Each structure stands twice: as C-alpha cells, then as structure tokens.
Amino acid sequence: MSLDGTGLARSNAPVPISKHVAVRVDLDQIRRNARAIALRAGVPILAVVKADAYGLGAEQVAKALGDLVGGFCVFSLAEAVTARIWETTGQPTMTLGPDPGVGAEEYLQHHVRPAVWTVERAVKLRMARPILSVDTGMQRFSCPADQIDVVLAAGGCDEACTHALRASHVQQLISLVGGRGLRLHAAASALLDEPNAWLDAVRPGVALYRGATRVTTALVDVRDTNGPAGYTGFSARRHGIILGGYSNGLRVGPCDINGRPSRILEVGMQSAYVEAADNDRVGDEVVLLGEGITEDALAAALKCSPQDALLRMAAAGVRNYVGE
Fold first, then answer.
1. Residue 243 lies in a domain
2. pTM for the full model?
3. What is the DSSP string of 29-87?
4. Rounded Cα distance, 80 and 49, in Å
5. CATH, residue 180
6. Per-residue pLDDT, 13
7. Which of 186, 207, 267, 281 is most open to solvent, judged by the fewest CB atoms within 10 Å of its CB?
8. By C-alpha distance, which of 57, 109, 55 is closest to 92?
9. CA 319 to CA 309: how far, in whole Å?
C-alpha cells in the first residue's frame, strides 16, 4: 500500500488501478458487521483478511477490528507480515496456505500459527504451535481422515479446523476430532446462519465486508447513440463513457446513474460504455458497487462469487477510508 499525490491510499493490486475510479471503504461498517457476527455467534471471531482483506486493505481493516476479534486468518505468512497484524493489533494470526520454505522460527517471530496437514509439515512446524487442517471435502491443504492421529501427534496440535462448505462438513469435523480437547472452528461466511457450525470460533470473510465498499466514477462523455456503437455494435438510445475498463477489473454488468439502475453496456481496456438517460450529464456520478448494487447482486450479474466481485471492484481504483 502506498499514497498517491492526494494522500489517498492506493491498492497494490495485481491489475492497474484507474485514478478515475474511487473506492471508499467504510471501516465503521466493517466493525458493525463484526459486532453483529460476534453477538449472534457468541464465540470469538477469527477475521479473514487474506488477499489484502479482499482488496480493502488488510492493515487498515485489521487495525479497525483489533479490539473486536480473537485473531486473524491469512493465506500466507507474507500477508501477515505486510499487514503488520501483530504490531498493530496484538492479535495472533493463522495461515491457511502452504508457505513453501518458511520455518517455525519465522512464524514464531510474527506470532503466526500455521495450518498443517502432513506429518512432515507438522514435524517441521511443531515449535510454531500448528493448527490441524482436516479434510472434510475440500481436498486441498487438509489432512485425510486416516492421517489425523499421526499428524496431531507430530505437531502437538491443540486446535483443529476445516474449510466447511456445508453443515455436513462441520459434523464430519466433529466426528473425526471432537472429544479430544481441541479448539475447533469451521464456520466461514457461508455457515454463519448455522448455529451448529459455530463451535469454538467462526472465520468470517466476505460477511465482514458486506455493505462497506462504495465504488464510483463519473461520466466523461454523454451522447445520443447513432446506430451500432462500440466494438460489439451495441444498441442504445443514449450512452455515456466512464474511465475504467477490463484492465481495471470492470465487466459488463449493473451500475447506478443519478439514483437510477443502469448497465455497463460494453467494456474496453481502459474505458466503458454505460446506458444513459436524458437527464444524465458529463460529471454525473456512476456507482459500480454500493447502494442497491450489493456484492451479492453484482456477483449474480457477473456469474461469480461475492468474494470475486468484491475483490475485482476493490482493485479497480484509488482506495480511501472513512470511519475508524
């Protein structure tokens, strides 16, 4: 994360950001979401801030949540180090991915506990108090049922988790490792409505971020459409142009102009066409995420997951923060 000339935070995104697209992150809304989850579940939250907190800025999000959660989850040690999670929150972090070449001492240095799923990995990382990752159907970075006993013993694990997609996966985790005095967690965002999945902690990701991001740009051109337009020859009575394209993560889908539902008609590399109305003018705001365009609504339109939709929009432009 760096600052541009205006002092606004810029995303270190894998795609170019457009300086004409504004990404506003409401940290107070993220805190409200966390409080609601904690109140409902009644167990500690392990906040998932992997992939730079789904593109919203892991360091800023972790600071905002530090007093509300019992820890954080990332994919790799590098994510925890870059976000300075321990230094800014004093809360531990768990890694979910493999981290090739990283040793126990490095995890200990940054107060990070790695997930383990093989005997070799458990032995290597035993000093870092590893957490057993149990395979209940994901078949990735997780321990098969017939290896659980040896991996538990090799790592000296006092905690176990699974990547659960359904309530049946949670029950499988309990069946495999329940009753052993281990702290258990399985519920990500998809299972927060399942009380039997809450166990000893919950691991929300996208549920923390719903409604916290507003992505906007402005019309730079508006005109009546004269015959087929653009690369695809789309038809519309009137159209506008915005400065953001597929190089910034934009795709054909919904938008909102002057409080009116509209659509992105065609996306070029660095600009896009939107459907315009008679009262739309150059400089008018175009909402790409926010108001009635929720993460779930955008995901449905783009035929992807809400996580994908949020990450794509968060990476599109210049981030700025309101709230905590």
1. yes
2. 0.92
3. HHHHHHHHHHHHH-S-BEEE-HHHHHTT-HHHHHHHHTTT-SEEEESSHHHHHHHTHHH
4. 9
5. 3.20.20.10
6. 43
7. 281
8. 109
9. 16
